[in-house]
Specification:
Helix content is 76%, strand content 1%. It has 288 residues and is mostly helical. A hairpin with a 2-residue loop joins strand 1 and strand 2. It catalyses: a 1,2-diacyl-sn-glycero-3-phosphate + CTP + H(+) = a CDP-1,2-diacyl-sn-glycerol + diphosphate.
Length: 288
Amino acid sequence: MALNKKTFQTRTLTAIIFVVVMLCGLLINSWTFYTLFFIIHWGCWIEYEKMIKLISPEYARADLRVTSIPKLIGCGFLLFCLPHDIKILNLNIYFLGEMIMLIGAIKFLLGLFKERENKVIIIRYAILGLLYISLSWGLMINLRNINFIVFPIGFVAALTLVASVWINDTMQYIVGSVIGKTPFSTISPNKTLEGTIGGSILCVLAVSIIGYLFVNKNLLHLFIIVSLIAAIIGTLGDLLESKIKRLAGVKDSGNFMPGHGGFLDRFDSLILATPFVWAVAVIWFSFS
């Protein structure tokens, strides 16, 4: 197939902008980190709702004033996951998050009473969205602030996870392109068994070596565990999002990145791996 120069230029420029924005959001300070994941959370919810409406006509016919509430409850959860010493106009921001979740839950339940049908479907997809999207990004924000004495163990774990996901995707693509022959799953025909296994092994080796040599030798176990989670759970996250897209009958979850897809396309691996890394950081903190 001949290379489409215009498409290649668009994909390259979009990828560069994406990497710059991500690095700025992750590294400048805590507020850029929080803002980045609030934006990602909102974008993921919009794409999730769009695909669910394609999957379920019953959900699509439901009152928008009801189906839009869960993502607002999710925003409340993200506020609750911020450091509890943050205040706005002398009001604890975590308390504001609690109020948004409580009021949102009440409005959602009251709205359900007005729905003559499809209550179960609305509840099912609301809970799925909160678990799939809001829980993950809330825990990512919380992970940013898990510290052991003065060492930011959670922040290191978060950055390691993001880097591991990127490295894993790259390694799986390269290995799959070179030696991949056996299909890994019917859900994602482009993935090969050789690429998935080989890329995952290279990801764990690369992240562990880089972390050991350039970050902190005492955290080798953390680098190994986080990169393993990124390789295994991250791959499952990719397959899960591919399954949702297949059910919805769409190629991409969205188009916020021309040539690369939407928010869920870009963060499908990270979104499923985050709760596991958060659990590892909490256990590490508890027993250290």
